[in-house]
Amino acid sequence: MEQLNRQQKKDIRLLATFVQVYCQGKHSGVATESRELPDALGESNLCQECRTFLDYAISRRLKCPLEAEKPTCKHCRIHCYAREQRIKVREIMGYAGRRLMMRGRFDYLWHYFF
């Protein structure tokens, strides 16, 4: 596997954080399993559904054709996600973004609104 650049690492960490918060909030009674993130970026405990989505999201992020001028996904002219996954990622970002801001993570405000 090729080395990830700084922006890819940041995006993958952000995705993992949002999916982790979503999974803990929505799937609290479901069995979780630890998953190692690529390039030694840490690990996350997720249910099977969330782990499958995170794997999909990471693979799409790593294959992004607009790496040089990468906008946020909601402002991108190319949609890498399938329709169902776009709906899912909006749900995850909305849920987790509000929870992270309520916990004092105001640095995510930029990502949430822009």
What does this entry look like structurally?
- The protein has one domain (6-113).
- The longest helix has 21 residues, at 6-26.
- The protein is mainly alpha-helical and 114 residues long.
- The chain has a two-stranded antiparallel sheet with strand order 1-2.
- It is 54% helix and 7% strand.
Could you list some keywords that capture this structure?
114 residues, mainly alpha, two-stranded antiparallel ribbon, 4 helices, 2 strands, 7% strand
What order do the helices and strands come in, and which of them pair?
Layout: H1 6-26, E1 33-36, E2 43-46, H2 48-62, H3 83-102, H4 109-113
Antiparallel strand pairs: 1-2
Helix pairs in contact: 1-2, 1-3
State the secondary-structure class: mainly alpha
Question: Main beta sheet, described?
Answer: 2 strands, antiparallel
Q: Helical element count?
A: 4
Order of helices and strands: HEEHHH
How would you state the average pLDDT, rounded?
A: 82
Count of discrete domains: 1
Produce a short descriptive summary.
With 114 residues, the chain is mainly α.
